[in-house]
Amino acid sequence: MYCVSYGSAFAGGSLTVPPSKSAAIRALLCGALSRCTSGRECVIENLYPSEDITATERAAGILCAGGGGEVDCGESGSLLRFIIPIAAALGGRWRFTGRGRLPQRPLGVYAELLPAHGVAFKNGTGGLGLPLEIEGRLAPGRFCLPGNISSQFVTGLLMALPLLEGDSELVLTSPLESIGYVDMTLEVLRDFGVRVDPIAGGWHVPGGQRYERPGYRVEGDWSQAAFFLNMAALSPIGAVVRLRGLRPDSLQGDRACVEVFGRFGLDIGWEGEELVARNKSAREPFGGLVGQELDVSNITDMVPAAAVCAALCRGETRFENGGRLRLKESDRLSAMCRAINALGGQAAEEGDTLVIRGVERLEGGRAQGCNDHRVVMALAGAGLRSKAPVEVTEAYSINKTYPTFFEEYRRLGGIANVLQLG
């Protein structure tokens, strides 16, 4: 676990945000498909060596070998849901494994779609877990799925269908959630020379296409930026945080963190290529922060950071339409509710809504990290406005996406003592 001190040690400063995990996984798989379909290598630049990215690099190598194989997806839900239809499109016999909560994360959409298009699907758990085996070659046609499930299923199919011999249609039977992640996928596909045409309720995808691009640079990660905006908001001395490496025009859904934390009361804006954040009312009651109502259906990854900020705002904050948060590395609605209450805050679940009533200062104590990197990183900021130290379990979970997070936190003046318990 780790211990974050309370008080005014957080001085702020500048840091370069790590590259986007979401963009990197897409680029690595498209780079592999460039080698498979056009025989051209694609150099992917600005990668960050997290566990999810390492797992994707291994998987990309297996894809390029062709003919099937066993893919260990680690704990990456994105990798698993992207690569299943891609492997099916390439054909052969494949086996997928994973660990942590990944084996329990739903795959039922593929259990219905893939057999209907010529691919055997076997995992013995009704399409709900790992290990999974598939065999055969995906046939083109019409693929229908709900839009209110994880956008990862949509992305996986959008990446796979261009590889098929004939044209296909991907049709959504309900409104699409996490639109930003699908927009990101479409942008990366265009960058690799792949054509996808919008139609009413979905996309027409011509078959027989090739992926091709000599190089690709991964953009900065807006999801990770949210943790540092939370710290800027909660700094009791109004520390200035300067974030580099972010695209103002990014299609990442979590770019909305600028608006979300701005509505909490954080002063935030661009100065050249830096995003600069400071709470100019830090010494006022509640740090001058106020609650708000949020529809989180398109910004699920930034909810943990925003929830910690909400716990220290004046008034009530409601995180609505958060059902998909229950299907992440942890049930993040419950995880954040329990953690905030354990630290002396006031939080409650109302169905798939998280309701937080702010307090001026947390009491401190121990909260469970739930083996969830985003829960742990969010709670690091809680110590900035706590009467006593905040302890969070399972600090090692940050290795999934951001192994140097605590180093960056300490470099900005935060105090994080990471303890290895025997």
TrEMBL record:
<feature type="binding site">
    <location>
        <position position="332"/>
    </location>
    <ligand>
        <name>phosphoenolpyruvate</name>
    </ligand>
</feature>
<dbReference type="GO" id="GO:0009423">
    <property type="term" value="P:chorismate biosynthetic process"/>
</dbReference>
<comment type="pathway">
    <text>Metabolic intermediate biosynthesis; chorismate biosynthesis; chorismate from D-erythrose 4-phosphate and phosphoenolpyruvate: step 6/7.</text>
</comment>
<feature type="binding site">
    <location>
        <position position="152"/>
    </location>
    <ligand>
        <name>3-phosphoshikimate</name>
    </ligand>
</feature>
<dbReference type="InterPro" id="IPR006264">
    <property type="entry name" value="EPSP_synthase"/>
</dbReference>
<protein>
    <recommendedName>
        <fullName>3-phosphoshikimate 1-carboxyvinyltransferase</fullName>
        <ecNumber>2.5.1.19</ecNumber>
    </recommendedName>
</protein>
<keyword id="KW-0963">Cytoplasm</keyword>
<dbReference type="Pfam" id="PF00275">
    <property type="entry name" value="EPSP_synthase"/>
</dbReference>
<feature type="binding site">
    <location>
        <position position="26"/>
    </location>
    <ligand>
        <name>3-phosphoshikimate</name>
    </ligand>
</feature>
<dbReference type="InterPro" id="IPR023193">
    <property type="entry name" value="EPSP_synthase_CS"/>
</dbReference>
<dbReference type="GO" id="GO:0003866">
    <property type="term" value="F:3-phosphoshikimate 1-carboxyvinyltransferase activity"/>
</dbReference>
<feature type="binding site">
    <location>
        <position position="178"/>
    </location>
    <ligand>
        <name>3-phosphoshikimate</name>
    </ligand>
</feature>
<dbReference type="GO" id="GO:0008652">
    <property type="term" value="P:amino acid biosynthetic process"/>
</dbReference>
<keyword id="KW-0028">Amino-acid biosynthesis</keyword>
<dbReference type="GO" id="GO:0009073">
    <property type="term" value="P:aromatic amino acid family biosynthetic process"/>
</dbReference>
<comment type="similarity">
    <text>Belongs to the EPSP synthase family.</text>
</comment>
<comment type="subunit">
    <text>Monomer.</text>
</comment>
<feature type="binding site">
    <location>
        <position position="301"/>
    </location>
    <ligand>
        <name>3-phosphoshikimate</name>
    </ligand>
</feature>
<comment type="function">
    <text>Catalyzes the transfer of the enolpyruvyl moiety of phosphoenolpyruvate (PEP) to the 5-hydroxyl of shikimate-3-phosphate (S3P) to produce enolpyruvyl shikimate-3-phosphate and inorganic phosphate.</text>
</comment>
<keyword id="KW-0057">Aromatic amino acid biosynthesis</keyword>
<feature type="binding site">
    <location>
        <position position="400"/>
    </location>
    <ligand>
        <name>phosphoenolpyruvate</name>
    </ligand>
</feature>
<feature type="binding site">
    <location>
        <position position="152"/>
    </location>
    <ligand>
        <name>phosphoenolpyruvate</name>
    </ligand>
</feature>
<dbReference type="InterPro" id="IPR013792">
    <property type="entry name" value="RNA3'P_cycl/enolpyr_Trfase_a/b"/>
</dbReference>
<feature type="binding site">
    <location>
        <position position="77"/>
    </location>
    <ligand>
        <name>phosphoenolpyruvate</name>
    </ligand>
</feature>
<dbReference type="GO" id="GO:0005737">
    <property type="term" value="C:cytoplasm"/>
</dbReference>
<dbReference type="InterPro" id="IPR001986">
    <property type="entry name" value="Enolpyruvate_Tfrase_dom"/>
</dbReference>
<feature type="binding site">
    <location>
        <position position="151"/>
    </location>
    <ligand>
        <name>3-phosphoshikimate</name>
    </ligand>
</feature>
<feature type="binding site">
    <location>
        <position position="150"/>
    </location>
    <ligand>
        <name>3-phosphoshikimate</name>
    </ligand>
</feature>
<feature type="binding site">
    <location>
        <position position="105"/>
    </location>
    <ligand>
        <name>phosphoenolpyruvate</name>
    </ligand>
</feature>
<feature type="binding site">
    <location>
        <position position="22"/>
    </location>
    <ligand>
        <name>3-phosphoshikimate</name>
    </ligand>
</feature>
<keyword id="KW-0808">Transferase</keyword>
<dbReference type="InterPro" id="IPR036968">
    <property type="entry name" value="Enolpyruvate_Tfrase_sf"/>
</dbReference>
<feature type="binding site">
    <location>
        <position position="21"/>
    </location>
    <ligand>
        <name>phosphoenolpyruvate</name>
    </ligand>
</feature>
<feature type="binding site">
    <location>
        <position position="374"/>
    </location>
    <ligand>
        <name>phosphoenolpyruvate</name>
    </ligand>
</feature>
<feature type="binding site">
    <location>
        <position position="328"/>
    </location>
    <ligand>
        <name>3-phosphoshikimate</name>
    </ligand>
</feature>
<feature type="active site" description="Proton acceptor">
    <location>
        <position position="301"/>
    </location>
</feature>
<feature type="domain" description="Enolpyruvate transferase">
    <location>
        <begin position="70"/>
        <end position="407"/>
    </location>
</feature>
<feature type="binding site">
    <location>
        <position position="21"/>
    </location>
    <ligand>
        <name>3-phosphoshikimate</name>
    </ligand>
</feature>
